[in-house]
Amino acid sequence: MIKDNQQHFNRLHVVLDGLVVIVSYALAWWLKLSGIFASNHVGVLSFEFYMKALIFIVPLYLLLYYAFNLYTPKRVQGRRLELSNIIMANTVGILIVFAGFFLVLSYTEEAKNFSRSMFAYFYIFNIVLEEVERLVVRGFLRSIRRRGYNQKHILLVGYSKAAEQYIDRIKQNPQWGYNIRGILDDNIARGTVYKGVKVIGSIENLTFILPENKLDEIAITLGLEEYYKLEKIVSQCEKSGVHTKFIPDYGNIIPTRPYTEDLLGLPVINIRYVPLSNTFNAMIKRLMDIVGSIICIVIFSPVMLLSAILVKITSSGPLIFKQERVGLHNEKFMMYKFRTMYVQTEEEEKKGWTQKNDPRVTKVGGFLRKTSLDEFPQLFNVLKGDMSLVGPRPERPQYVEKFREEIPRYMIKHQVRPGMTGWAQVNGYRGDTSIRKRIEHDLYYIENWTLGLDIKILFLTVFKGFINKNAY
C-alpha cells in the first residue's frame, strides 16, 4: 500500500539528508581549513575533533527537519514553502550548534582555535545541497508518477461542483500521482462520466467497497444539500481505517480561500482570508506607512512646492482640493489633492468622473493629473492614518452606494485602508477603466497581502504607475 511506500521513502529521505549534512560539513571544513581559503594552519583544531561533532550535529538536523515538516508528502507541497522550511531549520540548527560549542569550549584552550567561519560555510552549503537534493527527489517522484507508478488511489463520495474542481486539479497535475477510481452518488446516474471519472454506484456501495482495502483515501465531496449524510459516511470510513478528507462544496458561498481558527476546540471557518486583520501585520504595514510617508514628504517637498506655485498662479481658488471618500470600515474621510479644476459648485462636482478634454480641468491641472503629481498631498492622509501608501483606491460615497449593488463583493475593499497606489493601478486599471477588473485586482491584493507585495507595488508605481493615459 501507499502508506508502506511512504514510510520506506521517508526512511530513505532521512538517510539522504544525513549524508547531505555530512558532505556539507566536510566540504566546509576542507574549504576553510584545508582548501583554497585556508590561510594559517597554526593552532587549527584537528580534523578528528571537528568530525566528532557530527555525532551530535546529524541527529540534531534530522530532528529539526522533522520539526519543520520536511518529511511531509511532496505531492502538493510548494517548493518555496519547502525552501523556506529548509532555511528556518538550518538557521535554528546553526544557532544551536554555535551555542553548544561555546558552552563546551568556553573554558578550554580549543575555544581560541574554533573556526566560526567554517560553520558559516556549512550553513550555506547545507541549505544549497538540501534544496538540490529535494529538487532531484521531487523531479524523480513526479517522473515516475507521470508514468503511472507510486499512485495514490482515491474514491470520491458525492458528485458536486467541489468534486468537479477536485478532478480538474488532479487531471491538470498528473505529477501528484492521484488516481481517482470513481464517484459514488445517490442522485447521478451510474455510468455518468466527468473527464474520464465515472459514477460507479450509490453511496451505499461504500459498505462493500471499504472492506476490500484497495483504497488509499476517501474524499467526501457531497453537495451542500446532502450534508446530512456526512456523519454516517465519516463514521463508515473511520471504521475501515482508510484516510478520509472532506472537500466542502462552498464555492458559491466562499469564492476564495477561507481559513479556520480554533475557538476553544470549536473550528470556525472565516469566509475570507484577510492578512491585514492580523494585528501584527497591520502594525507592520502602519509603521511602513508612517516612515514611508515622512520620507516621501521630505524627498518630494520641492516637487510639491513647485506644483503648489503653478496651481496658484494659473487659476484662482484654493491650492488643495478636499473631497469626501470612503475608507477603512466604510468610514468617510476628506482626501487631499492639488486642485486641478476651476472652482466649481458642490452640484457641479457631483456630475461624474472627468471626461477627455473636460473643460473643467485647467492646463496645469491636466499635466498634474497625467503625471499623478496631484496625488502627492495624500501623503498627509497616509500620515494621519486615513490612507495607506498601498491599497485599493477610495471612491466617493455616491459611487460606493452605486457599486455595492451592481458589483458582487465590492464592499470587501473597505476591510483595509485605501491606498495612494494599488495592485489594480500598476496593472493599468486607473481612471476610465473597467471597475469590475479593478475590484478583482483589489480583492487579490486584500487576500494575498504581504510586505513584499507592497514593496513590489511601490516599485512598479515608480517605473510605470505615475504616467496615466486614462487620467483626464
UniProtKB/TrEMBL annotation:
Q: Which residues cross the membrane?
A: 12-31, 51-71, 83-107, 119-137, 290-311
**E.C. numbers:** 2.7.8.-
GO MF terms here are: phosphotransferase activity, for other substituted phosphate groups
For whether the record's keyword set contains Transferase, the answer is yes
Ranges of residues in domain Bacterial sugar transferase: 285-464
Q: Where in the cell is it found?
A: Membrane
The record's principal subcellular location, in a coarse class, is: membrane
Among Pfam families, the record links this protein to: Bac_transf (PF02397), CoA_binding_3 (PF13727)
In what way does this protein cross or attach to the membrane?
A: Multi-pass membrane protein
Record flagged with keyword Transferase: yes
Identify the keywords attached in UniProt to this record, alphabetized.
Answer: Membrane, Transferase, Transmembrane, Transmembrane helix
Q: Name one GO cellular component term.
A: membrane
Q: Which family does it belong to?
A: Belongs to the bacterial sugar transferase family.
**What is this protein identified as?**
Undecaprenyl-phosphate glucose phosphotransferase
The top of its lineage is: Bacteria, Bacillati, Bacillota, Clostridia, Lachnospirales
